[in-house]
Structure formats: structure tokens, C-alpha cells
Specification:
Strand content: 15-25%
GO molecular function: DNA nuclease activity; hydrolase activity, acting on ester bonds; metal ion binding
Protein name: Hydrolase, TatD family
Shape: globular
Pfam family, one: TatD_DNase
Radius of gyration: 17 Å
Helix content: 40-55%
Order of helices and strands: EHHEHEHEHEHEHEHEHH
Oligomer: single chain
CATH class: Alpha Beta
Organism: Mycoplasma capricolum subsp. capricolum (strain California kid / ATCC 27343 / NCTC 10154)
Keywords: Hydrolase, Metal-binding
Structural class: alpha/beta
């Protein structure tokens, strides 16, 4: 049975990898629609890509933009960049601030700048009553980024957002859920066995799904790019883990995403 009405909460139609293969955002969206994807969030990661995300969102009624500066880029920008992000966030199709967060995977050299930039963009989200789309990545099996982010969320009283492409343990997922966050899973769930226990023990009403396209395609497409059209594979895998029907996962994750991102639509 085909799945329909899916919401891909995190992809990058604005990524240069699609430009390199001469594929337009409209073509990607059309293919996604044919596979059952109804809504797509197009995520910015710097000023330029955030502008592009809005432009592409305006080309399709069911594509929305999320604007922000990725933690790995944050040290490259001045205070003016955050003012631009706030201006962009006032655009009609913008439904969140992101992707923002902390990334110490390769180095924590710019930890101070990342924390400052994270807090500034959280403040923009709160000012405009928008959810945050959060990227948290640490060195393998280290979870210091979660500790820092959790303290920031508590300090800033952040209650509306999603931890995207979750890779951490169940313990931390539940801590973020207690604050009001959703937890989103991408195609890693199709080949990282340790994530299955996390998905299994998180309530369906706190789950979101994403492709994180063009990154990390699902099994069996691991050697190519990822596309929003692959979202049904992720939904099916989660349904198998939770021992429910595909349609139940599809409906719940869509409803969750609509509550978080589309309250004004």
C-alpha cells in the first residue's frame, strides 16, 4: 500500500549537490509528491542558503523555508548576519529558525562562537514565535553538546522545536521531550541498529521524520544522493520497529509536524 500525506521536516533543496546534477527544486518536489510526500521544509544553513530556501519555497505551495546559520558556519559571520536572518524570518513562507545548534564533531575550536550564535538565533525564534530546528553533533559516543544545549534550552525557556537527525541515546531524547521538543529521525534509522531502541521507546506523538536530503540516503540507496521521495522508506522502517502500520506513523508524524510548523497555515 502506498503511503500519502507525508511531511519531510528537513531537507536541503538549496544544496549545491542538486545544482551539480542539474536538478531543480521543482523537479525534486514533483518526484516527492508522486511518492506520497505532501509537505517539505527547505532548511537554510547560512545567509545565502536561507535566502534560496525562501525563494524555492515560494515556487511551491507545499514547500516551506527554515532560515538560520549552521554551527559549523557561525564563526564566519558578523552581528549583521543575525539581523539579516531575523529579517528573512519575517517572510511569509518561513516556519522556523534553523538549522542552528552545536557541532563539536571535528573540533570545539569555535565553541564560544557556536554557543553565542546558538543563543542569538534562539532569541530570534522566540521574538517571532517560531520553532527552532536544532543540529547537535559531538565526537563519537560523546554527548557534551547535549548537556550544553539542554542548559541553554532551560536558561532560555525554549519549549518549541525539534532535535533533527537524532543520533543520541534514549536518555537524552527523553530529556529534550520533557522540555517540549520533538525528536526527528532521518535515514540513519535504516542502518544504525542502536537507534532502533530509541525509536521504539519514544511516543509517536513526539516523533518527526526527515530525509536530510541530499545527505545520508537510506538503505538500499547509500551510494547516491538522498531525496525527499525516499521518505516513505524511513516511515516504513519506523513502523516496522514500532510494530504499527505505515499509515499510523505517516499520520502521526504529519500531524506532529503540522502542529510544530504550520499553526498559522
Amino acid at each position: 500500500m502506498n503511503i500519502s500525506g507525508l511531511y519531510d521536516t528537513h531537507c536541503h533543496l538549496n544544496d549545491n549537490r542538486f545544482i551539480d546534477i542539474d536538478m531543480t527544486s521543482n523537479e525534486i518536489v514533483f518526484e516527492a509528491k508522486r511518492s506520497g510526500v505532501k509537505y517539505i521544509n527547505n532548511i537554510g544553513y547560512d545567509v545565502k542558503s536561507s535566502k534560496t530556501a525562501i525563494f524555492q519555497a515560494n515556487l511551491s505551495p507545499n514547500v516551506f523555508a527554515v532560515v538560520g546559520i549552521h554551527p559549523s558556519q557561525i564563526h564566519l559571520y558578523s552581528e549583521q548576519a543575525f539581523q539579516i536572518i531575523e529579517e528573512l524570518a519575517n517572510s511569509n513562507k518561513v516556519v522556523g529558525i534553523g538549522e542552528i545548534g552545536l557541532d563539536f564533531f571535528e573540533t570545539n575550536k569555535y565553541e564560544k562562537e557556536q554557543i553565542q550564535g546558538f543563543k542569538k538565533q534562539i532569541e530570534i525564534a522566540q521574538k517571532l514565535d517560531l520553532p527552532v530546528v536544532v543540529h547537535l553533533r559531538d565526537a563519537t559516543k560523546h554527548f557534551r553538546v547535549y548537556e550544553i544545549a539542554y542548559k541553554i534550552f532551560k536558561e532560555k525557556r525554549v519549549k518549541k522545536g525539534v532535535i533533527h537527525a537524532y543520533r543520541g541515546p534514549l536518555e537524552w531524547a527523553l530529556k529534550f521531550i520533557e522540555l517540549g521538543f520533538y525528536i526527528s529521525f532521518d535515514a540513519a534509522i535504516t542502518h544504525e541498529i542502536e537507534l532502533e531502541q530509541v525509536v521504539k521507546n519514544i511516543s509517536l506523538n513526539k516523533l518527526l521524520v526527515e530525509t536530510n536530503s541530499p545527505f545520508l540516503p537510506p538503505t538500499p540507496y547509500k551510494k547516491g544522493l538522498s531525496y525527499p521521495k525516499y521518505l516513505p522508506l524511513i516511515v516504513k522502517h519506523i513502523a516496522k520497529i514500532k510494530k504499527v502500520s505505515d499509515s499510523i506513523v505517516a499520520e502521526n508524524t504529519k500531524n506532529n509536524a503540522e502542529r510544530l510548523f504550520l499553526r498559522s497555515y
